[in-house]
Write a structure and sequence with these properties.
The protein contains 2 helices and 10 strands. By secondary structure, it is α+β, with helices and mostly antiparallel strands. It is elongated. The mean pLDDT is 86.
Length: 180
């Protein structure tokens, strides 16, 4: 019986091990392909997040507009504007009665509540999803036309797609105006 020598077994095992692995170039190629796919995926994910925040901004303004229309239905006027924010009067029966205490509402922390007894038009005004910018409210002198404005979207529309605010005749990325 011929048994292979120990050195022959070691030699056979080392040949098998050498053929079972990947070369350095093959590993680098796979890593490069995976890196490219990840970078494409992250870019798409980032764009999807921006679109979602822009849609949230549109939805926020439409919700505020609903509350402003309820306010208009009660008082036949829209609330005042102060530095781009909604302003109502408290301590009086009529929310537009300037003899009351002026309450300038902050985006994201206060709601549209006024009158005596107090009526709640919106429990909390929304804030911009990124908090780096805020919404803007403008009303004309007769308080019959308003604009709720998002000055800039994260995905900027073409200049032709911008919307004009009838209160100041300026174009913005997105505007909701009064229905009257």
């Amino acid at each position: 019986m011929n048994l292979p020598k120990l050195s022959d077994q070691q030699s056979a095992n080392s040949k098998q091990r050498g053929k079972a692995g990947f070369t350095l170039i093959e590993l680098l190629l796979v890593i490069a392909i995976i890196s490219i796919l990840i970078s494409i995926g992250l870019a798409s994910f980032s764009r999807a997040q921006k679109q979602t925040r822009d849609r949230q901004r549109q939805s926020d303004l439409k919700n505020i507009a609903g509350a402003l229309e309820q306010f208009y239905s009660d008082f036949n006027t829209y609330p005042d504007s102060n530095s781009g924010k909604i302003e109502v009067y408290t301590g009086v029966a009529n929310c537009t009665d300037t003899t009351g205490t002026a309450d300038t509402l902050d985006w994201g922390s206060e709601g549209i509540k006024c009158g005596s007894p107090e009526k709640n038009y919106m429990s909390q005004l929304p804030a911009d999803p990124l908090s780096s910018a805020s919404y803007t409210y403008k009303v004309n002198g007769t308080k019959q036309i308003y604009c709720l404005i998002v000055a800039t979207f994260e995905i900027t529309p073409d200049a032709a797609d911008q919307i004009e605010c009838p209160v100041d005749s300026t174009n913005y990325d997105y505007v909701v105006t009064s229905q009257n």
